[in-house]
Write a structure and sequence with these properties.
Number of helices: 4
Mean pLDDT: 94
Structural class: mainly alpha
Number of strands: 0
Radius of gyration: 16 Å
Strand content: under 5%
Low-confidence stretches: none
Shape: globular
Distance between the termini: 20 Å
Number of domains: 1
């Protein structure tokens, strides 16, 4: 368990990835969104099944990117959170929409913070 040991020497540096990596990630997100959205559309009464699926699949990919300290994850989060603001506003969930608006601000702050430490552990 990583958090249960002395992890001062195991800190990952913030890195960036190539456009090919991001193209592959976006293709995976698109395929996952299609598969998950199709299931939601067929078996639930979700109002926006593909938007919901897209934000969920994207968030899973981004969470993995966070664990690898890939700088661009924050840009993905900004888009995911902006789409979520729209989705929750559309569904009349104003407080949740406000929460995701705050997440946009935090994502921008995270991006700027990580960019300053790019390449250093």
């Amino acid at each position: 368990i990583f958090w249960g040991r002395d992890n001062t020497t195991d800190t990952l540096p913030v890195t960036t990835r190539s456009w090919q990596f991001h193209a592959t990630a976006l293709l995976g997100i698109a395929i996952g969104t299609w598969a998950s959205g199709s299931l939601l559309a067929a078996y639930t009464d979700a109002a926006r099944p593909f938007v919901d699926a897209g934000t969920t699949v994207s968030a899973i990919v981004c969470t993995w990117m966070v664990t690898r300290k890939i700088l661009e994850n924050w840009l993905y989060w900004i888009v995911i959170n902006a789409v979520s603001v729209w989705l929750f506003t559309d569904r009349g969930l104003s407080l949740t929409s406000g929460l995701f608006a705050l997440y946009i601000v935090l994502s921008v702050a995270g991006y700027l913070s990580w960019r300053r430490t790019l390449g250093t552990p």
